[in-house]
Amino acid sequence: MNYGYARVSTKSQNLDLQLDALKKADCEKIFAEKISSRKKDRPKLKKLLKSLKKGDSLICYKLDRLGRSLLELVNLIAEFEKREVRFISLADGIDTDKSGSKLLLNIMMCIADFEREMIRERTIAGLEAAKSRGVKLGRPFGVPLKYQAKKEQVITLAKLGKTPSEIGRMVELSRPTVYKYLG
Hints:
Blueprint: E1 2-8, H1 16-24, E2 29-34, H2 43-51, E3 57-60, H3 63-66, H4 70-82, E4 86-89, E5 94-95, H5 101-132, H6 145-159, H7 164-171, H8 175-182
Parallel strand pairs: 1-2, 1-3, 3-4
Antiparallel strand pairs: 4-5
Helix pairs in contact: 6-7, 7-8
């Protein structure tokens, strides 16, 4: 059986390109999800891996849709080999049934891992440069304006003798948030 796997990292991204390619590749069942490859728990991928049997094929649009780390990809490909599952990456021209694909696969995984590491290094350098210029990173400290009215309600209810649990239920906030608003 031909299984397809499609993934995008964010909810705003679109799966159509991958799904069209997988349908064209005669995938009988396609597992698609919108989740970062960095997430340890990718439910659709987990379900797909449980479905694979000897002689099946797993087809994905591009290698990086299956996983981003070199170690993860190597482990998955090794698992496919052990279970006698064919792996095909359409855009990368990889087919583990063809000679030379394993070499190409290893080279591409190394390049993808290198590219990810370069992005990480550039991001860290950019953050350090911003810090040195005095840019404040992260969420702003304090209560956002849209919650200022709730903060005022919390303070008023506390003055009336309500407990943090009661206040939380009344204004629909967690107890830790109530404590934070009370200072």
